[in-house]
Design a protein that fits this description.
With about 200 residues, the protein is mainly alpha-helical. It has six helices and no strands.
């Protein structure tokens, strides 16, 4: 592991961790939406929009910090890339919530809850990992676990789509497929964060 010769500013890592934590909160809000009657959707979707706005604010704060900080714990392009992926994940969660409301879906299959469980776990692990990016020796397990969860999400998505094709009419299938695609894409964005961490580990070793 390379020695670090200058003091590091942890604020950027804290901002990345806060972005990931917003995804944890947003997953909880989407779970509420899936369990709520359609009459409650608009209020809960507004909560989701607030999570998305907060995530965007954190990304802007990170960009400002990277421009003004003399020494960062990681290359700016790595921190920026991870922030972009976290923001993209949040935008897809926000889109999934809005689609539930627009399509007036009162109920989604259990596979939706399974995907949300995976997303929440990925976000929890990522929030913790972002705080520890200045000690890369501890993060190989994080990298591996996020990849394992992403593969599980891909399998869940395939089974979900197959079930929908078998059980749903065309319009219902199209609406549910839109939401399923948004959720699996969230897990892919979280995987991209972990892949970037893996790349940092390799570069720094």
């Amino acid at each position: 592991m390379k020695l670090r010769l200058f003091p590091q500013e942890p604020a950027g890592l804290n901002l990345l961790s806060q972005q990931a934590h917003q995804i944890v909160l947003a997953s909880g809000t989407l779970a509420e939406i899936l369990g709520a009657p359609a009459s409650e959707h608009d209020r809960l979707v507004e909560d989701m929009h607030n999570h998305e706005a907060k995530t965007a604010e954190l990304q802007f704060a990170l960009l400002t910090h990277m421009r003004t900080s003399f020494v960062n714990p990681l290359p700016r392009e790595d921190m920026y890339g991870m922030s972009l992926c976290l923001n993209a994940a949040m935008e897809k969660l926000d889109a999934a919530a809005e689609l539930v409301a627009l399509y007036k879906l009162d109920r989604l299959p259990k596979r939706a809850a399974d995907q949300l469980e995976i997303i929440t776990r990925q976000a929890e692990l990522t929030a913790d990992a972002m705080r520890r990016l200045n000690n890369l020796d501890d993060l190989e397990d994080y990298w591996i676990e996020i990849l394992r969860l992403a593969k599980r999400a891909e399998r869940t998505h395939r089974v979900w789509v197959a079930d929908m094709l078998k059980d749903m009419k065309a319009t219902q299938y199209a609406r549910n497929r839109d939401i399923a695609n948004q959720l699996v894409d969230v897990t892919k964005d979280m995987r991209r964060v972990a892949t970037q961490v893996g790349s940092i580990i390799v570069k720094e070793s």
